[in-house]
Amino acid sequence: MKRLFAVWFLLGVPVSACAAGPGAPLQVRVLVYNYAGLPDREAGRAQREAGRIYREIGVQIEWTDCPVSGEGARPEACHSRRGPSNFELRLLSRSMVKGLPFASTAMGYALQPHDGPGSLANVFAHRAADLASNRDLDQGLILGHLIAHELAHLLLGPGGHSSRGLMRDGWGKRELAWAAQGSLTFLPAEAERIRWRMRVQAARR
Ligand SMILES: [Zn+2]
Questions:
Q1: Model's pTM, two decimal places?
Q2: What's the CATH fold of domain 4-204?
Q3: What are phi and psi of 155, to 5 degrees?
Q4: Mind listing the pLDDT tens digit for each residue in 66-75?
């Protein structure tokens, strides 16, 4: 059994390998499980925001909404195994987060196996809603940035936090203002690291 450890706004893995060609498309599929029951409007806005942030660094995200109950059709992609380019994103409800060993200010966490890249990210949807409400911001906007942050932990590997920008561990007024302006994003070095690691993963497939 893989040993997992939590990364809450999180961690880094040294990688050494040959990179794929610079022209290779950088894509990742994200299977979304909306356990929080967010309305389509908020969930859609969040995906658009996160997708925009990644497009700006040259990464395309293909979103697939997967049902959380046995009802409704289940897209084929939802049957696929998680992996380095096939992530699972869980939007957790307040009741699901209650009792988890995280600080009250935590907004989500990603799981990072010790023996390879992570592929599962969790976001605490209600805390995005609380933060948005307190700052008079759009819930989908904040949630999208949180999603981008947690997915980045999977792409960056351990040691993913920065002192500023999207990957800062805990956002203040400055980061939230940037988010509202659409300018809260990755630092250039982070963007390059994400692209490089994705090319490495692509070369291994
Ligand atoms: Zn983090």
A1: 0.87
A2: Collagenase (Catalytic Domain) (3.40.390)
A3: -85, -35
A4: 999 877 788 9
